[in-house]
Amino acid sequence: MAIPAATAANAYAALAQLRSQTTGSDSAGGNGGNGGGPDFGAMLKDAMAGVNAVGRKSDMQAQAVAAGKANMIDVVTAVAESETAVQALVSVRDKVIAAYEDILKMPI
Questions:
Q1: How many beta carbons lie within 10 A of that of residue 4, not counting itself?
Q2: Cα dihedral sign, 52-54-58-61
Q3: Under a CB-based contact definition with an 8 Å cutoff, are residues 58 and 79 in contact?
Q4: Contact 6, 23 (CB under 8 A)
Q5: In a domain, 17, yes or no
Q6: Which among 1, 5, 21, 67 is least surrounded, fewest beta carbons within 10 Å?
């Protein structure tokens, strides 16, 4: 049961780091008037890279178990982290698509 708590703690830490970076760039005026938030494309790229890294870690753990060099608990933990990351990414994708569809439905 520690897996969701660890994942949530990592997500909160990443959010805090993102917030501190955003606060620092607002004072410099480096975002060019887009509301002061971070670049959405960069955030999406970082999220994809994070999910990819978690997937690679899961694959390496599975290969290590097949070679007899790792513990099965580590593999189960890595696979659960990977599954959680993919579910979060799919959820964000669904929200973005729903928002886009709502924008398309707006009258001009």
A1: 11
A2: positive
A3: yes
A4: no
A5: no
A6: 1
Residue 100 has pLDDT above 90, yes or no: yes
C-alpha distance from residue 25 to each of 13, 15, 30, 33, 71 (Å): 18, 15, 6, 12, 43
pLDDT in tens, 39-77: 888 888 888 888 999 999 999 999 999 898 888 898 899
Count up the domains in the chain and report the number.
1
Classify residue 58: in a domain, yes or no: yes
The two tokens of residue 76 are 């189960």
Q: Is 56 inside any structural domain?
A: yes
For residue 77, give the 3-state DSSP assignment: helix
Q: Indicate the range of 18-22, 51-55, 94-98, 102-106 predicted with least confidence.
A: 18-22
Give the contacts of 4 (CB within 8 A, at least 6 positions apart): 84
